[in-house]
Write a structure and sequence with these properties.
Elements lengths: L7 E3 L8 H10 L5 E2 L3 E2 H5 L18 E6 L3 H13 L4 E6 L4 H4 L12 H14 L4 E6 L9 H11 L3 E5 L23 E4 L5 H8 L5 E4 L9 H5 L8 H16 L1 H16 L5 H8 L5 H12 L3
Parallel strand pairs: 1-9, 2-4, 3-4, 4-5, 5-6, 6-7, 7-8, 8-9
Helix pairs in contact: 1-9, 3-5, 5-6, 9-10, 9-12, 10-11
């Protein structure tokens, strides 16, 4: 799915890049490559009904890559096949998630940076299982003493992986400190830069280091128009209309009981930096109904 004409990606963000958020991004950037929040191979293959994303159909979502995580070689291949059948345009293997329940207890995510043998088996299995491209998303290494991302990228290339996204931190750093992205001019496959990329200057900076594209993560929170903005588009005149539309998408997908509390974090991100945003967040966190939430949003952004 790597395309020189679509060099700015939206990163997979757990609990954030769900179908409603991808849909609101699509309203501004119809052709941008997006990645789903990470999907457990166990949950997907087991068709666990309490996880809606297991049943998403990507056929009409445009350039969407589905990210899977797990440590079981066969289940990862099975999950990739399911997602291909559901319309994903490429499969992304998570090799960078640092949270303990994934990277230590499940032996997946960033743990695969410590076990290149298992990582290789998973990559080969997934590549063989599907006819669509496969990518990986990883970090610089487990910690400062094990910065072995180059070795993992070389293995990925040998396995037939099409491209990789590299986050400029180690697993030990989590999301702390500044991302430091190394020069990748000699990489055997295209590398997408990830970490602290928020502006057009950031994109130009990483391209000068040999990266073939950039991946926006936390910079897009509360700013689903950011990719369009980086390509020269403007900011919406009244953000409140965007917030209401995003809320409607969430209500349609999850239903009121789940969508309203889930949307509180988005309301906070949309309002960040605005006058009286703190009072607005406090108010929103006490709201349990969709109608009341819509009223609060309209009042805050002055929509009559």
């Amino acid at each position: 799915m790597f395309d020189n004409n679509n060099q700015i990606f939206v990163a997979p963000l757990a609990g954030i890049t769900d179908r409603p958020f991808r849909r609101i991004i699509r309203d501004f950037s119809p052709n941008a490559p997006l990645v789903t929040e990470m999907i457990s191979c166990h949950s997907l293959v087991g068709a666990h009904k309490n996880c809606l994303r297991n049943f998403d159909n990507y056929s009409n979502e445009g350039a969407v890559g589905a990210q899977i995580f797990g440590a079981d070689v066969n289940l990862m291949a099975d999950a990739a096949r399911i997602l291909q059948d559901q319309g994903a345009k490429w499969i992304d293997i998570n090799m960078g998630c640092p949270v303990p329940k994934v990277a230590t207890r499940a032996g997946a995510g960033a743990h695969l940076m410590r076990d290149h043998g298992l990582a290789e088996k998973i990559m080969r299995s997934v590549v063989r299982a599907v006819q669509i491209p496969v990518s990986i998303k990883t970090r610089l290494g487990w910690d400062a003493e094990h910065m072995d991302w180059r070795e993992l990228i070389n293995i990925a290339a040998d396995c037939g992986v099409s491209f990789a996204a590299l986050h400029g931190r180690t697993r030990a750093q989590l999301y702390l400190g500044n991302a430091v992205l190394p020069n990748v001019s000699d990489a055997p496959i295209p590398i997408i830069a990830n970490g602290d990329i928020r502006t057009a200057d950031d994109v130009s900076r990483v391209q000068a280091l040999g990266y073939r594209g950039a991946m926006i993560g936390r910079g897009i929170l509360g700013r689903p128009w950011l990719l369009s903005e980086l390509y020269g588009g403007g900011v919406p005149e009244n953000i409140g209309h965007v917030v209401l539309k995003h809320l409607d998408y969430a209500l349609e997908y999850y239903g009121e009981k789940t969508a309203v509390p889930m949307f509180r974090k988005h309301a906070a991100w949309y309002s960040a930096g605005m006058p009286n945003s703190s009072d607005f967040r406090i108010k929103v966190n006490r709201i349990d109904s969709a109608d009341a939430l819509k009223v609060a949003i309209r009042e805050f952004w002055g929509i009559i």
